[in-house]
């Protein structure tokens, strides 16, 4: 008969920290291998319904997997070809961009000269001294970025191959997981796997819907104000919006640069900024709470921290994969007793909306039933001068003071 060994709290904490450090180190060292595998795992979960559709049409299993992966590759290639054609047309207007940029820079220098009494020569000296070392650093950063992008592109070529193998050997992998655990734990294992599929599929589907809506709104807005490459910029904004917090800043910068292909009128740039602000307001306050955040209950602090850590470890792919990986970790922690506090730390129990006259608005406060319930369950220990033994609290002492208790 096997006995369960119970470690003290400090030993469990040390083991958890050692495991986390080991996972981060392994991920950092072998990110070129692990990142394509994780992408393939996520897209395999997303495309499994497509494979099941082909199976219902009585396709053989191998043929259903081939057609599923082929559809994925064709969609990605279609987006890449469209962007390549549009970008090639965009590069032909580079001379117009430089000309209009010089006009705006000249107007800015005149404004500085008239209001701050700094001549054009002094301004140019300031610019030259400030950008003397920046050009070398910028070229190095550009080279590293292009190299990183090339490596990422080469790694992503392996994603369809990994997807094919994962979909093909799905049952084999499931049997392997069942063999790792005893039969009495199979129900818990099935629950964890099911919830992981639901969380990942819901998050990725939400991102795709968000990307489409943001692309359409941005394209329509740019068409209204007369930006030349409205469709290209709208699609790029939607794609870059998949990178949390940082992608939209880069998309806004590209939109401002692209607006210089039309006319040197400053109102176009102001219009581009206004359109981006309106779209981001709609995205952050309506689309994200309703479509994305409702699928994955992760608080904002852990999300930002995870994105920063993912970017430091694996660059842009790591930033994109941070939220799905945190969601998977939360599902596992919520269903393992000694890891449940970590799942609660990652999660978000704040109520998302409040109702006012039949209208719902975002709400960010801890005045909810879950927090009150936790507070009522935890009894406060009583410490005296001579003793630190926890004494039971009577019902009368445990009653809240309605006059002094904070809401």
Automatic annotation (TrEMBL):
InterPro entries in the record: AI-2E-like
Q: Where in the cell is it found?
A: Cell membrane
Which keywords appear in this protein's UniProt record, sorted alphabetically? Answer: Cell membrane, Membrane, Transmembrane, Transmembrane helix, Transport
Membrane topology annotation: Multi-pass membrane protein
Membrane spanning residue stretches: 9-27, 33-50, 62-85, 146-169, 203-225, 231-254, 266-282, 302-328
* Top-level taxon of the source organism: Bacteria
Q: Which Pfam families match?
A: AI-2E_transport
One Gene Ontology cellular component annotation? plasma membrane
Which BP terms from GO are recorded?
Answer: transmembrane transport
What's this protein's family per the entry?
Answer: Belongs to the autoinducer-2 exporter (AI-2E) (TC 2.A.86) family.
Listed name of the protein: AI-2E family transporter
What organism is listed for this UniProt entry? Flavobacterium pallidum
